[in-house]
Structure formats: structure tokens, C-alpha cells
Design goal:
By secondary structure, the protein is α/β, with parallel strands linked by helices. Helices cover 49% and strands 19% of the residues. The protein has helices at residues 22-33, 40-47, 64-77, 105-114, 119-130, 133-141, 155-176, and strands spanning 12-15, 36-39, 50-54, 59-62, 80-84, 97-102, 147-151. A hairpin with a 4-residue loop joins strand 3 (50-54) and strand 4. The two termini are 22 Å apart. Bound molecules: adenosine-5'-diphosphate. Adenosine-5'-diphosphate binds next to helix 1 and helix 7. It comes from Drosophila madeirensis. Residues 114-124 are annotated as: LID. This is Adenylate kinase isoenzyme 6 homolog.
């Protein structure tokens, strides 16, 4: 198993329920930190890392092994922001920080309605947010001190999140290369 290259920037995972505001934040973060933004859903679609399509929830089922093989050399180089609406299958060693984007239910509902999600998909995602499932998944999968929650509701929240991550970055870089 490969480690992070010497002098590499850290890798960050941005996770959360669909619609919570991951992409919105990743786009800004990648630009401001000069990181590569790896949107796993997009990569999986582009390279056909899809096992099958779940008809009930109208969503693709990821071929996680193929995605991992694709990401491994990129992660070794560091400086990546990985985005996905799940986090328990990535190797723990990949990430120096995990940020879980959360969103109040009313806003999330409106965002998912706008995406024309079917009722089943919509209610399962709202339930996921109500129960804090992704936050729990992150806390179960990574060391507690690298998991942070960020609110993805408003532009002001995003500005605050950007500030939080930018403050975190030099500390973790120095720790990584001490
Ligand atoms: N912090 C925010 N402030 C205002 N609008 C946001 C914010 N985050 C996301 N949005 C909007 O909500 C919608 C869903 O956001 P997106 O980032 O695509 O969610 P995700 O990547 O988690 O599925 C988009 O229309 C986006 O512009």
C-alpha cells in the first residue's frame, strides 16, 4: 500500500447527504487552496465504474474497487479534495481531514425537489440527514479528531467553512511534514 509522497499536500474528504452543499464548497475550496477536486460520482460515470442501476432509488451503484484503483495513484500525490456522499469504503490512510457538510432539512428538501428526485429517493435522503447518518459514518470510519462538520445552507456558511478549512490547512501540512 502506497503512502503519501514526501512533501505532498494533504488529502481532504468532503462528504455529506446529496444536496447538502458538497460541490458548492469543493469548487471554491479547490480554487482557493489550489487542490484537485475529485468528484467520485462524476469519475464513476465518466469511466463507467458502475455495477448496476438501482431502479427503486434511481441511482447508480458504484463499483468501489474500480474507483479505488483509479484514485490510489492520485491520492499518493496528495493535494486532492475528494467528494462523495458516502465515506466508509475509502482507505482511512488516504485522508488527513474529513469534512461532513450538513444542511437543515427544509433547505435540503427544496434542493432535492428541484433535482426531481422521486419520492423514495427524496425521503431516504431527508431521513439520512435527520439521523445524521453520514456524520455517524464518518465518525465510525475515521479518527474523531479529523472529522469536522460544516454547514452547507447559505453563502455565509460556505464563507465560514472556507475559513475553517484554510485555517486547518497549514497546521495539518506542518504536522504531516514535521
Ligand atoms: N452554502 C451554500 N449557499 C447557497 N447555496 C448553496 C450552498 N451550498 C449549496 N448550494 C446550492 O444547493 C444546491 C445543491 O448544492 P450541491 O453543492 O450541488 O450539493 P451536493 O454536492 O452536496 O449534492 C445547488 O443549487 C447549490 O448552488
Amino acid at each position: 500500500m502506497s503512502e503519501l509522497d514526501a512533501d505532498a499536500k494533504p488529502n481532504i474528504l468532503i462528504t455529506g447527504t446529496p444536496g447538502a452543499g458538497k460541490s458548492y464548497l469543493c469548487e471554491r475550496l479547490a480554487e482557493q487552496l489550489n487542490f484537485d477536486w475529485l468528484d467520485c460520482s462524476k469519475i464513476a460515470k465518466e469511466h463507467d465504474y458502475i455495477e448496476e442501476h438501482d431502479e427503486e432509488y434511481d441511482c447508480p451503484i458504484l463499483d468501489e474497487d474500480k474507483l479505488m484503483d483509479h484514485l490510489e495513484p492520485l491520492m499518493q500525490k496528495g493535494g486532492n479534495i475528494v467528494e462523495y456522499h458516502g465515506c466508509d469504503f475509502f482507505p482511512e490512510r488516504w485522508f488527513q481531514a474529513v469534512f461532513v457538510v450538513t444542511c437543515p432539512n427544509k433547505t435540503l428538501y427544496d434542493r432535492l425537489k428541484e433535482r426531481n428526485y422521486n419520492e423514495k429517493k427524496l425521503s431516504s435522503n431527508i431521513e439520512c440527514e435527520i439521523f445524521g447518518s453520514i456524520l455517524e459514518e464518518a465518525r465510525e470510519s475515521y479518527k474523531a479528531d479529523i472529522v469536522h462538520e460544516l454547514c452547507g445552507e447559505t453563502a455565509a456558511d460556505a464563507a465560514k467553512s472556507l475559513k475553517t478549512v484554510k485555517q486547518w490547512y497549514p497546521n495539518i501540512y506542518n504536522k504531516l511534514h514535521a
